[in-house]
Design a protein that fits this description.
The chain is mainly alpha-helical and 200 residues long. The chain contains ten helices and no strands. The protein is globular, with a radius of gyration of 16 Å.
Length: 200
C-alpha cells in the first residue's frame, strides 16, 4: 500500500518503483520522500480525492524516466552537455515508459515537474495547482538529499533557497507557504530556523 494510492493501483506503482532500485537508493528514497511531502501538502491544501490520487502517482513516478538513462549519469559528478540534454528528456521518457498506466492528468504533472510558474524549464506544459504540489515536494526533497556532486542542504538553507524561488516565481508561493507551515507544525523547534531564514 502506498500513500494516497488506491490498492488496485499499488501493484503497478510497486512494479515501476522496482526499477529505481537498479540505480541505487537515491532515486527510490527521493520518490518516497517526494510522496510523503506531497501527501502532507494535499491534506493542507485540501485537494479532491481524485486529484490526490493523481498527485501521489506522479510523486512516486515523476523521475521514472531516469531509470532508462545510462548508469554513469548517477555515478559521475559532472555530465557533458550532451548528457545534460538527454537527462532533460527524462519527463518525456518517463511518460512514454508508463504509457496507459497513468491518466492524462498524471501525465501532465510528470511532463511539467521541471517547469517554473513563469514557464521556464524543460519538459512540456505548465504545472497546474496539483502539478505545483509535485514540483514543490520534488524540489524540497532533492535539496534535502545528498547528490554525488554536492552535499545535502540543511533545513535553513533549503528554506532560504525555496523562499527565493517563490519570490522569483520559480515555484508556486502558496504551495510553498503550506509546506513551510507543515515543517513548523511537525516540530516547533524548527520555528526559529524558519524565522532566521527570513532575516536579511
Amino acid at each position: 500500500m502506498y500513500l494516497g494510492v488506491n490498492p488496485e493501483n499499488s501493484a503497478e506503482i510497486e512494479r515501476y518503483l522496482d526499477l529505481y532500485t537498479n540505480y541505487g537508493h537515491n532515486l527510490l528514497n527521493h520518490a518516497y520522500g517526494c510522496a510523503s511531502i506531497a501527501s502532507a501538502l494535499c491534506e493542507a491544501i485540501g485537494v479532491s480525492p481524485n486529484d490526490k490520487e493523481d498527485i501521489m502517482v506522479a510523486s512516486y513516478l515523476h523521475d521514472i524516466g531516469e531509470t532508462q538513462l545510462p548508469h554513469r549519469f548517477f555515478t559521475q559528478s559532472q555530465l557533458t552537455d550532451r548528457d545534460k540534454e538527454l537527462l532533460n528528456k527524462h519527463p518525456q521518457i518517463g511518460v512514454n515508459l508508463l504509457g496507459e498506466t497513468i491518466n492524462e492528468h498524471t501525465r501532465e504533472m510528470i511532463l511539467s515537474h521541471h517547469i517554473d510558474v513563469n514557464g521556464v524549464g524543460y519538459g512540456e506544459g505548465i504545472p497546474d495547482k496539483c502539478g505545483e504540489i509535485v514540483r514543490v515536494a520534488d524540489i524540497y526533497t532533492a535539496l534535502m538529499s545528498p547528490r554525488i556532486y554536492r552535499r545535502s542542504y540543511s533545513l535553513p538553507e533549503t528554506i532560504s533557497v525555496m523562499d527565493k524561488m517563490a519570490d522569483r516565481k520559480h515555484i508556486n508561493k502558496e504551495v510553498w507557504g503550506e509546506l513551510r507551515k507543515y515543517l513548523v507544525s511537525c516540530d516547533k523547534s524548527k520555528y526559529k530556523i524558519v524565522q532566521q531564514s527570513n532575516k536579511g
